[in-house]
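Late entry, evening session. Most of the bench is empty. Finally got around to the prediction I had been postponing all week. Sequence below, unchanged from the version circulated by S.P.
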Amino acid sequence: MLFYNLHNLLITPINNTFSADGKRISKSIIFCLIGSIIFSIFYSCLGLKKAFQGNYVVQDDAREYVFWMQRFSDSELLPNDLIADYFKSITPIGYASVYKLMTSLGIEPVLFSKILPIFLGLIITIYCFYLSLEFLPVPSGGFISTLLLNQSLWFKDDLVSATPRAFIYPLLLAFLYYLLRENRLMISLIIVLEGFLYPPLLFISLGILIVRVRKNYLLLAGYLGLGIIAMLPYALTSSEFGPVVTAAQAWQMPEHWTEGRHPFFDQNPWRFWLIGQHSGILPPLMPPLIWFGLFFPWVLKSRSRFPLVSLINKKIILFKQVTIVSLVLYFAAHIVLLKLFFPTRYTVHTFRIIMALAGGITFTVMLDGFFHAYQQKRRFWQLLLTATLMGLLLFYPNFLGRFPTTGYKISEQSAIYEFLQKQPKNIMIATLSDEADYIPTFGKRSILVGREYALPFHLGYYGQIRQRTIDLLYAQYSQDLAVVQQVIQKYRVTFWLLERTAFQPEYLTQKTWLKSFQPAFTEAVTSLEQGINPALAQLQKQCSVLETEKFTLLKADCLLLAKLT
């Protein structure tokens, strides 16, 4: 009886009753939508728990965007800062405007980056739910599709990053929904929002429009023109530090190979084409049940086994169209490498959405099939299989210690941040330590270089970062104090931050991203292995202004006046 009641509540198709304003109403819709929202909020709360596990916590990728936006509350921060100016130039104007608005309301960028995923998650949930109903008017299908998508998003850090790519899912789901509803006004609005929030998404949306409305030339021309206009602000600002690295140049750069700062190429062709992080065609999708979507074509052909198949709408052709557009853009991105950025940008997000929707529909249709089979001939294994699948669907993530995957980074160097914040706002800190990735966000002061900010894409920017890093390597591990003093004067360095282990060979060899800076890296390692004592190592006590358990902060003025004994 319980099995039967649950089936009636969750798997029975939506009845054809309407409210006064023409919207479909159903208790099962309300029940499943609320359930979807509850799970979305639950996963967001798990993420929030990690976001506030310390005083100095920030999401990994958010560091690249959040730090410079602290200028919204204090325009004097990070003056003439190359790194801040670069990341400002590649930040979509709409994305920056959202943070600027929140700052004006008293919500600092770092804080807002932690709470934004909650609201984006709710938007994603609602659009995914109603989009699923467009394909199969069964509320439980919407619930399962939404649950799979939410779980998949929280197995990765795209949504929780609160970076521009966090807007991909709400924007794309909304676009697909209004596309099926043939709402031209909302499609136009979404196109504009994509251009302002995440411009690369326009290639996918416009590609889908080309496939679907190619016969209506006037309408298609209007959409394409609107897309081009929406993309112009980003195209103009991001070219400030051009040109973009060409494929030939990237091939010669160790930064784009294994152990580089942003690896793309791989000597293993199978790994490169199948599972490469930025090059592979197979997305690393979790949870495992999302792969039920692969059975969707088989289910469509099995109407005799699965009665609900007859309710699947012809709009399902959208799955095929999105997949085709994604693959075309994927291979195009390989052909014009880096002109369209990395190829996986055009497959991983669309595949996740399509697999979640197809997986949810397949799961629902199969559950209904099990129910009808159980009615005809009751077998215990059918109940057991159904219970097992539902258990996996609802609780699988809870059995994994790494769920949710948030990418939040914790720093415990409060003494350094508090000290730096008391210094003038135009100071410059030189360091090769990983702490450089946190100083702009928590110390609110400029750094000379940092791994997180060494993006090898725009030569006008990266050329300067590369030279800074090479100069810093030579200076930090040179016996000649004059080399140190030249770097201080050249870049107007105020403080030099050293880790306690900075003069051990293993310190450098463990920082794989530095291997790209030859010959400075190899010479520095060789020097340490030979037992040569660098000038900075000899002046740590003499020029120290702050010491912690792991770090020593040296004053540059002291280094300029110092003499080696």
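Two things to note before I forget:
The chain has a mean pLDDT of 90.
The longest strand covers residues 495-499.
Will write this up properly tomorrow.
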